[in-house]
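MODEL INPUT / OUTPUT PAIR
PAIR INDEX: 1
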Amino acid sequence: MFRKNLLKIAFANYVYKLITPVGLKLNMSLLLTFFLIQSSNAFEPLVYMRPNETPMFTELYQRYGLLNPPALHVFDSAIYLGQPGEKGPLVIPSSEVFFNEVDKTLRAYHERIGNQELFLDPKETKPIFCPSNGSLQMIFGLVYAIAMTEPEKQFLFVEKIPFYSFHEHAISYRPYPNARFQGFNSPSEIKLNPGETLVEFVTSPNNPDGTFRQPYTQANIIIADFVFASPSYGSDGTGYIKDNIAWLSKARNEGKHVFAFNSVSKALGKPGYRLGYTWFPMSDAYANSIFHNFFSYIWRLTVGGSTPGTAEALNLVSALLALPDAGQALRTDAFKTIVKRHDLVKTELLKRYPGTEVTSIPGSPTLFAKLHSSDIPKMTGEDILYKDINVAVDNGNTMGATDDFIRINLCGYSGDLAEFLNRLAKSQKYQENELLVSSANHCTHTTIHGRDIPHYVVNPNDCNIDIDARDADVKITLPKFINFQRSNLISIRKIDDSNHVITVQADKLTTTIKNKDEQLQVQWKQPFFLNGQWQTVRP
């Protein structure tokens, strides 16, 4: 109460001084300065650098002409998806056809890029392919299956620090009376209670630091998170595939129960597709015993996969498989991009905050660092970057580290990263076109005949559109490309000399093209995910 009254007195005294003639001029100056500062900050958009988005791949697919791959996989969304292999014959025949198609396509993809053995034990004779709506569902489903199948047993889930936060969350969010989680720096820190069963999470390449990981304990149950085990990540851009297969084969040969899974979120840079998957090793007696609870979690307690999202994922996979190198050039560009970004962010971070320790490696999809600042320990590293430069990053404490650790996404849009670097550097020294490495710059060419297609809707893969309107007027619709920060520069040209008109229409734009060889260039822009709109340029 005393403190409250003291504040009232202080505030009243300040107001009195403010309205006196002597104080008015000074305080008006101070207020004007304050509002100018606030106005300046108000127009500085938040830069979101938390690592659950991968639009760097959108930029690469744009350069490679893969933003709208041929629809080779078409699924009826009116069909309900069930899960094969619960008990006896499959109840829903349509689901069996769906899963077989997804299974076949993904097997071909993993065989082509050389990492199939990570997910499919060559000795496994009865695998059941299990898709889900993402790797999180895989993680939560496996923990549920292990804990609920033997509720009388106690389980300790462990992982080396730093670790992916949702591994811990899968145990603590429920929580389970018979399961707990412990992060460790050294296996000697692990103290099992009497009768407790050890389960180890292994993520390789590791999230958040990109390092190679293998089991560090003698756990007989291993959950292998291989979402980054693709030739875009790791210190050498191989995803440590050979090294991962080596320790995985050893564990399987020793009779350990290994549950490995993948996700297109990281492997293809497409979290919006919502597709995670595993091949459940049913020849393993223990795996067989927990499968019914895994099934229950994926398809009863939560919601399974999406037919449109899965179809789009398979269309992209098929387009990559159709390339002579199965998309390896693109994956190499992705690797070179994150290496370059890691080096630049590290450089500017150390200049802005001397003494900062970067513990992640070039080739990691995220930068992980212990921030050094005079504001620590009063503030977390996450809060310091938000306060200083209005940038959102992750707090490392959810990954087993301390509050001064931060995790920064390196797989975001180049424009966001350029702004982040410029704010760190306090100068406009970086441009977005410097922050993407691409060995391709594919530009599609489409010809529209008004007789056959009087109305054409532009898609993100479009680049050059020629229109023959000799037989009819043509309407071109520019839809909103929501969350695409920048589209191709799209050129629309009339190639006939008729009197028919081409109307180009967007949400807040209508214009016409009337003359032969008349050209209109349009581009969608939505910087920082704000105020998306089409802009026009007449050459």
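PAIR INDEX: 2
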Amino acid sequence: MGRSIIGRFNVVPQLLLRMQSGKAVRLRDFAAQQKLGRTSFDVKLQDDGLVHPIPPSTTEFVRPNGMSLRPPGGNFQETLETFQKPPIIFRLVEGTPLPAHFTLLHEHTDHFSLQTTEPVSITELNKRMTVFLSQFQIITTQDYIREFGL
């Protein structure tokens, strides 16, 4: 039995952060990652080549299916400390409404995932997520340390 999904949201429920190497979102597909000998991934394309939403009736966390977000804290800091390049950090503001094509799942612990609500290509999903993130403030690692400590 997997872990229960804690919640589903159509607004950002609290301050959440997204760390990545550039301004454009580049979700990692399971099959492509496996070919490279890597185990971490963000989405798994279905037989039609699209990313499909997790059905609203799903109550258990099964696998990654979107863009990872976390609040400031220990888990975020651990990832920040091991990030390969100096990342940029998007600061998602509490109360921000999500576009209809997104939902936000609180999957487990302090891990949230921005996911599609409709079948979509990974290219289109990356574009939509990049546009969504572009409205938020970008902070550096130094900004994070100043505000939240390490």
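PAIR 2 NOTE: The chain has one domain: 7-148.
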